Amino acid sequence: MKQNSFPSLNALRVFEAVARLGSFKAAAVELGVTQSAISRQMTTLEEQLGIRLIQRDNRVHALTPAGDALAPELSRVFRQIERLVKRTMKNGEHARRTLTLGISSELLRWWLGPVLSEFNQLYPHLELHCVQVPEYLSRQNEGALTHELLHGELDALLTFSAPAQKAISNWKLASTNLILVRPESLPEPNAETLHSCKFVAVNTNKDWDRWVREYDTKIPPEQTQLVNNTSMAVELAQFTDRLMLLPDCYQRAAQHSGLVPVPGFDLTGKQGLHLSVRRESQREMAIVALVNWMRHVAEAQKPPSRS
């Protein structure tokens, strides 16, 4: 073995522990190895250096002058390495990217939530932090939501309809075909009896008025209750025997609530499901991953076609 070759770092670590703790036994306990392994490493180190570092007389492991000079410097270097490793690990934790997604409770519960574990498995370094926002983008809330996107309070926004601001990029994930649903306990209406039924509608869903015009139902205003979101509409439909229009991406959830489709009254909606991000961040790898995954989810969850 060449004397001038650089010694093993492991052997230097062993010597530092022996010198600091004063015995082979204590060093073996700290490093989780046997005393014989400690002894072999010390012999190897001294052979590599070509000098004695420890006097082994009468079981007293005293440092030689060379060992006494080397030990404190090694302790300083290894403490510095330890601090560097801890700082690197801490920085690695901070490198975990958190994406703040604005999403309604309906879309989270009935559309995105059931597949979130897939996102966590695919992108363990990304954390999706969900913040509740309105389900439908409207003139009343668009300004505030656009502001949150542009100022980094939200990294992405998932809503029906999309902001028109040029500084925001939008992806249409799915069309919103609307289906008329009823509680199972309510008899199925037809074109002649529809006008006598009670309805519940989401007041920010612009397609409700289109549906009324499309089917010329002439429903008296007092027979329609307007609410702010689909969750409330589903509850009222279920418990007060009302009909409602439902985006078909919620169809499976509606079935769990005892709501069934009324055939023949579908409508192609104009308010598609959109994902929106700041244009300046759309090429960031975390955003690209989120957009691609959301598009995959939309494709996988596309409702079956209705005849």
UniProtKB/TrEMBL annotation:
GO terms for biological process: DNA-templated transcription. Keywords: DNA-binding, Transcription, Transcription regulation. GO terms for molecular function: DNA-binding transcription factor activity; sequence-specific DNA binding. Residues 7-64 form the HTH lysR-type domain. The keyword Transport does not apply. Belongs to the LysR transcriptional regulatory family. PANTHER family: HTH-TYPE TRANSCRIPTIONAL ACTIVATOR TTDR-RELATED (PTHR30537:SF5), HTH-TYPE TRANSCRIPTIONAL REGULATOR (PTHR30537). This is HTH lysR-type domain-containing protein. It comes from Aliidiomarina sanyensis.
